[in-house]
Amino acid sequence: MQDHVAIIGAGIGGLTSAALLAARGFRVTVLEKEDKVGGKARSVEVDGVPIAGGPTVFTMRDVFDGVFEACGSSLEDHVTIARADVIARHAWDRSGTLDLFADPDRSEDAIGDFAGAAEAAAYRAFRREAKRIFDVLDEPFLRGDSASTPFPMMWRIGPLRIGDTVAMRPFDNFWKAIGGHFKDPRLRQLFGRYSTYCGSDPFQAPATLMLIAHTEAKGVWLIDGGVHALALALASLAQQKGAVIRKRARVAEICMQSGRVGGVRLTCGETIRADTVLCNADPAAIAQAKFGAASASSVARMPDTKRSLSAYVWFAHAKTQGFDLQHHNVFFSADYAREFREIASGRPPSDPTVYLCAQDRGARLDSPLPSAGRERIQMIVNAPPNGDRHTPSAKEIETCNHAMRQTLRRCGLELDDPMPHHLATPAEWERLFPATGGALYGRASHGWAASFLRQGPRTKTPGLYCAGGATHPSAGVPMAGLSGQLAAKVIAADRASMPRSHRVAIPGGTSTRSVKTGSTA
Fold first, then answer.
1. Which of 30, 59, 447, 467 could, after both became Cys, cross-link 7 (CB 3.0–4.6 A)?
2. Which has more confidence, 158 or 257?
3. Does residue 234 share a domain with residue 130?
């Protein structure tokens, strides 16, 4: 009989593992509590129009090219994808904008025109350092096994490459390191923002996170339908390899059998036997006994103070005017330090930086703008991860909405008011992803050791594994994909080395066969 893997959650990490494990011959059942796959990479309907939710920046395409190739397919067989000429458009006020391009020479020229030749040279040096950090960490850390301390990774780098180890700059402060490159405060703010890609405060993060700038400079890709379309593609791929995806199937308990995993019990009372359980939820949900007390000690409990950023996210079908939007746009606050002090104090920022994804804007500079009328936009404002302790009042929401519009207006962008929209707050993120407080990226990368404290694929309980953006190696779409790849690799290796044993009944409900469904992607 095939080994059976039950996967809790159909996010990017879980779906990646599902496809790879099914391709290896495992019997795979994915259990998703919502009525759609994708996890944070979801779709939200506003004004009768589907708007891609969750992450919008797609980098490190090679991660998913590898997944599809391993399953005998290709990414382009499943999605329409194009490389963006403009990585992002940035604005601070009405005086002008700064674009970064897929072509680094064009970015350098743009920075020179915007801030002078010295800053263009600084960008060259910054880009070289970001690339070196990425090259040092790519294989041993991002694509390698997780470690509870940095020493195994340093051994993989090699004791004779001490210069590379030092080049990671784990003990240097990110914000100060950015300031060592750029004197123009606007550029310091622009490149300092990269720490928020993994939900971290630029004033508390290590300089190592400069590598994020290189992942973006390597290429940003636009997918028709957004990252949610990638999730649908992964689901379809997994099903083609034989995986079963069950939606509206909420797991109540991870069942134990003789000191190891024996399956899961659903809230409907059904028990599904499984040799292996892969949890694609935030590991905090296990630690806080959201899947039963028996498995709670499988992972270390993370203090709430270590949570990453949350966000207020507007999904809107809006009329825009006064600013020439690209697909990715960033409108900066006037005081970045105050913005993060307010978040650290538990309040949404009074003068926020706003990220805006204009989903109807094309991948190329010569793409036609949306037709007259409304366009689909997603706007993100960083917020404290206190959704399990605080539900914002109508007045607080209106204050946050006003602050967001003020930032856009300062930079020359006007939105119609009122506009059809849905606002997701930290409280809603907590409801969707329990035990997180609305933190969207797992553990914040604050301090030199934080990246080594993320949950890896193996847990303390035999047969129970973790994957997803809250686990090793980090947050974000490609990192969630890498976590899914690593989990699949580890599960296959562990199962290959285990003796087969006779099945017995497991506690936690009536043992039943898992129900196979048709295509659900």
1. 30
2. 257
3. no
